[in-house]
Amino acid sequence: MMLFRKSRAKRYNDKKISVIIPVYNHEKYVKEAIESVLNQTHENIELIVIDDGSKDHSFEIACSIADTRVTVLNQENQGAHATINRGLNLATGEYLSILNSDDAYENNRLEKCIDYLCTHEEVHMVCSYIKIVNGNGKVLGLKKGWENMEPWPIAHKERTFAKYNDFHKNLLMSNFISTTSNMFFTKKLYQDIGGMRNLRFAHDWDFALRAAEYANCAILEDGLMRYRIHDSNTIHSNRKHMLFEICWIYAANLHRFEKEILFKGNLMTDFEEMAESLNLQGNDKMVWLIRSYLNAAASREVENPELVLLDRPDLREKLIEYIVE
Question: Which domain range does residue 177 map to?
C-alpha cells in the first residue's frame, strides 16, 4: 500500500506525536482512520491501535496495514475510556492525539496542531472546527466550535455564555469539542490531570473541562477532522445513562471555574448567564443530589468522591432511576 508523504522538511517535524485509535466494531471505517493518520504531512508519528474486543473483522484489518510506525494490540472489551487510557500510557510521544476508529483526520491536522502548541507555549490542548460526514463520507456541514450546531435549542442566546468568545465559558455550556477525536494535547497535560474517567458518553467533555482548568486551550478555525454520523454512534444507545453523565459532569466540574471564571462581575448578569447557559434537561435535582454528596464527602476528606459514583454500578443505577428523560 502506497501512503502519501511530504518530502520537504516540516517545521517541528522532530517532535514526536503519539496517536491512539481505540477500535470497536468499525470494520467499515477503521482502515480509513488509520490511513488518515499515516498520510499526515507531519511524519514523526507513533500510531497505537487497540482493538477493544471487536466482534467483526476490525482487528484483522488493522493488522493488515504494514507500516513501522503502527502498533496494533487487542484486548477483551473494557470500554472506550479504558482503551484510550491504555494507549495514552503506552505513548512515547511528547504530544498526544486520539482518533476514534470511525472518524478521520485531514492530512495536515497534526502539522497545524503541533505548530500551534509549539508557538503558544501557554496552551496545552487544541481542537478544531469539524467536518460532519455521513456513513459514506459525504460532508453534511462544518461545525465551527461553539458558534453553530448546538446540541439543543437555545431560547435566548444573547443571555448565555455563547455571547462571549471564551473557550472556558462555552465549554461549560456544551461540549463543543464534540469528540475525543478532536483533542490534541501535550503529554505533560495528560500526566498532570490524568486520563479519561469511567464515562461512556461524556469522558471527552470531562477530560476537556479538567484540561481547561489546568491550562489555556484553543480552537483552530479550520475543519481539520471528519466526524462521522451513523446509526451505531455511541451517543444514540442509552439516553438515560447519557443524561446521568451530563448531570455528573456539572456536579463534578463546576467548582473548577466558580472562582476564576464564574461570579466575577455583576451578580445580576452572572446569575442570568448561568441560568440560561446550563441546560440540565429537567434533571436539576440530580445535579443537586450529586453536589450535596460531593460536598459531604469533601468535608470528610474523601479522596476523589466523584469517582465512587462511576465505579460502583449499584450507586450509578440507583441514581439513574431518578433521571427524567
Answer: 17-237
